[in-house]
Amino acid sequence: MVVIGGGVVGLSVAFHLAEAGVREVVVVERDLVGRGSSAKPVGGVRATFSDAGNVLLGQRSLEAFERFGAAVGLRQVGYLFLCRTEEQVAEVERSTRLQRSLGGSGRMVTAAKACELNPLLRAESLLGGSFSPRDGHAEPALVVAAYRAAAEELGVVVCEDAEVVGIECGGGLISAVETSRGVVRTGRVVCAAGAWSKRVGEMVGVSLPVEPVRRQIGITSEGGSPTLPFTLDLSTTLYFHGCGGGLLLGISDSAQEPGFGREYSEEWRPAFDRAAAVVAPSLVGRELVSGWAGLYENTPDHNALIGVSREVLGFAYATGFSGHGFLQAPAVGEVMRDLYLGRKPFMDPSAFHADRFSAAAPVRERHII
C-alpha cells in the first residue's frame, strides 16, 4: 500500500492501516513530512458544520484530539461564529440544531453573550451567533509528529523528498508508483496529496477537482488571551483566536488567485482591517511579529473527497478538505482504513465521493473560512 502525501491526513491514514494489521505501508512525500498544507493551518479543531457528514467527522476527530490532549497543545476554548444578517442567523440556527441532534455542544448566543465570550467584539455590529465550547485549536506540527512516530513504530516506511512522477496503471489496475527516488511496486494507492491531488488523479484517469489557493495568517505579540474563543465572522471570513499572549489573525481573501505560491506578504491586511473595523475595531492595524502563507485545497462545494475509485481498482483518495483537513484527519484515517478492509465505517462517506460532481449539484458547506 502506498499513501501519497506526508501531511496529517496521509499519516493518519497510514497509522490506522498499520494499526489494523496492514503490512508494507509506504508514505511518499514530495517534500518533508508536514511541510505542505499541514505546515501552515490555523490549527482549529471543531465539529461546527452545516453538513451532517462534516459534523460526524469533526466529532470523531475531536475525540482523538481529546485523547492526545496537552501532547498536541489542545485548547478547547470554543468556536464562536458571528452572524450579522437575519439570513445568517437562520442558517446558523439550522446548523446548530443539526449539530445538537448529532450530539454536538453548539448553542445559539445573543450579541451580548458573544461579546462576553470575546470582549474584543463590537456588539452593535452583531445580531447573534453560535458557540460550541468543545471546539478549539491544537498545534499541527505536534499532531503530525505524533502520527508519524506512531505509524513508524508500527512499521510504516516514510519516504521524504520523493515526488510522485507517475503511476503505472493498465486495464484499470495499478501496478506501481513511480517517484523521483525510485519505483514502489504496489496494487493499492491512497491519494492524500492535498493541493497537489488533481495531478495525482490525472495519472490514473480519475478526476479529483482540487484547486490550490493561498491563505495567509499573522501573529501579534500582545492583545490576546489563551482563553479567547476561535472567532469567525461569517460575513467577511475574518477570524482570530488567542495565541499565547497575542493573537492569530486571518481572513479568506476573495481576491486571491488560485495557485501554488506560498510566499508570505501582507496584502491581506487591508481586507482584514476593513472587516475588523466593523466587528472588532481594536484589531485594526495591529502590529504583527510573524506570519506565514499556506495552501487551501478547495473543491467546488468546499467538502472533502473521500472514497474509492469505481474506475481504477486499488485507487482511493482522501483530499480536497478546503481548510478542514487538519481537524478531520483522525476520523478520515479511520474511514480510509475501513474502506480498505471492506468494513463499514462509523459514518457513511458516500456523500464525499468524487463522482458527486457528475450528478446533481452538491450542497456547499456553509461553515467555512
Write a brief caption for the model:
By secondary structure, the chain is of the alpha/beta class.
Task: From the structure above, extract its key features.
369 residues, single chain, eight-stranded mixed sheet, alpha/beta
Describe the structure.
It is a single chain. With 369 residues, this protein is α/β, with parallel strands linked by helices. The chain is 28% helix and 24% strand. It has helices spanning 8-19, 52-68, 86-101, 111-117, 140-153, 197-204, 269-279, 325-341; strands at 2-4, 26-28, 44-45, 79-83, 107-109, 128-132, 136-137, 157-159, 164-170, 173-179, 182-185, 189-191, 211-219, 230-233, 238-243, 246-251, 290-298, 305-308, 315-319. Strands 5-6-4-14-15-16-13-17 form an eight-stranded mixed beta sheet. It has a six-stranded mixed beta sheet with strand order 8-2-1-12-19-18, with helices on both faces. α1 (8-19) runs parallel beside α8 (325-341) and α2 crosses α8 (325-341). It is globular, with a radius of gyration of 20 Å. The model has no long low-confidence stretch (mean pLDDT 94).
